Amino acid sequence: MENLDVMVLRTLRDWRAAGKRALLATVVRTWGSSPRPVGSIMALAEDGAVVGSVSGGCIEDDLIYRHTQAYSGKEPGHQIPSGPPSFVKYGVTADEAHRFGLPCGGTLELLLEYDPGLGPIEELVRSLEAGRLVRRTVRLADGQVTLADADAPEELSISDGLLVNTFGPEYRMLLIGAGQITEYLATMALFSGFAVTVCDPREEYRGSWSVPGARVVAEMPDDMVTAFRPDRRSSVIALTHDPKLDDLALMEALKTEAFYVGAIGSRRNNEARHQRMIEHFGLTAADLQRLRGPIGVYIGSKTPAEIAVSIMAEVLAVKNGVVLPRDMEVGQAKNMRAVQGNEPGSIVCGVAAAR
Fold it and tell me: Residues in domain XdhC- CoxI (predicted)?
């Protein structure tokens, strides 16, 4: 699954290019609990097709009904939506909250943009596909849109008759090694909205790859990191257990703005990796502060699937700016269990040794 915002905007672009009428809905305010955060977007075509989400589904159903009736002209009371953007609130009363499936006390406000111009949508999609962060400004008086590059993500804002929302390119994940854990992790990353690339020069591993949607390449990992050009929405994770493949790739990744750089391995392997990179590649302890390992959050994982869940949870926490307690770090948790005498013996060549 691709980045949801990009998917919505691409679909809206295609509808407008085909001459279809459509609207773009943006969550601009919430009060109390809300199913979707401020800034979430959804597009609705005149035939009722919808992409994206602004709630758990009930508000979408109401928007689809009201606007398809208007577009069809079957009911005189439903006028075809047009003109400048308008605001609409859902869940203002307890009855409406219940009707629209909002949590108790939840209220959200949407901005509806009618028939957005094709040119600005095309330009926005091109910028996102080129990996740029874009600030989209809508003039509420007439719906005029202006676009500008942004230096950092910003919260949606409304002031002085303008709505400003920042859109970022797809989140990306580069996985080194095409083993079993990688298959599970790639699957989870794809349905979490990451574009996934798997790099493994070993033909015997690539030949058995079975996850559709992930790009698989045969380059040497360090060359692939350079070509991948990790940015602030990128993660690089080494999963081969082979220093010849992992170490150089990690060293290249640490030079980039990637928000997450990590490698699988036990606490002992992690310490050995740090030592190698200091002794043989001239890195310093400060250079290695961003290198995560053992990766994942501690959930007692043993199987490849559980280990992948653990890693994906940590990646998402870092992506979302959540600082996890130290006792959830794999290394720290295992150290504590070892002190308490509760840690089971590791399996030297099995999955448990990977943690």
Answer: 15-72
Structure confidence at residue 77 (pLDDT)? 58
Q: Which two tokens stand for residue 164?
A: 């400003």
CA atoms within 13 A on the CB side of 11: 19
Q: Which residues of the chain have pLDDT under 50?
A: 1, 344-355
**175 and 162 co-located in one domain:** no
Q: Are 297 and 313 in contact (CB under 8 A)?
A: yes
Six-digit token string for 170 = 């797809």
Instruction: Return the half-sphere exposure (C-beta side, CA atoms, 13 A cut-off) of residue 146.
Output: 9
Integer Cα distance of 6 and 103 in angstroms: 28
Residues 316 and 262 in one domain: yes
Contact 25, 42 (CB under 8 A): yes
**DSSP string covering 58-126:** HHHHHHHHHHHHHHHT-STTSPPP-SS-EEEEE--SHHHHHHTTPPTT-EEEEEEEES--HHHHHHHHH
pLDDT digits 0-9 by tens, 167-176: 987 789 999 9
